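C-alpha cells for 4a-hydroxytetrahydrobiopterin dehydratase. Go.
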Amino acid sequence: MALLCLFLLLIVVLLASFWPLVMEVRVMEVRTALVQGWNLVSEDGVMKLHRSWKVKSFTKGLEFFQLVADVAEAEGHHPDLHLVGWNNAKIDIWTHSIGGLTENDFILAAKINSIHVEHLLRRKAAV
C-alpha cells in the first residue's frame, strides 16, 4: 500500500511539473486562433507565429514588407521577414529575447492583419 501511495505521489509530481508547459501551449493555441491566418509553429524548439502571402510581384513584396515594417517599428517589435522566390512573402513573429512567444507577438500579428494589402496580393492569399 505504501508503495502504491509513493507511486501515485510520484505521478502527481511529474504531472504537476509538466502541467504549466501543457497550459502554456494551450494558451498559445487559443491566442493563435484569434489572429486569423497565422499558424503556431515550432522551429528548433522555439514557438513562433508564421504566416505566408502570395504577392503579385517582387516589388509588391517589398512594398508589403515596407507596410509591415512601419507597423513593426511603431510597435518596437520586429518580425523576421522573408521574400522567398519572387512572390512568396513570409513572416515569423517571436520574441527573440525570451526565445518564444509573448503577448506582444499576438498583438503585432493582429496589427499586421489590419494592414490593407489586398492591392499587393495575388487573387488568393496563401495561408
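The mean pLDDT is 83.
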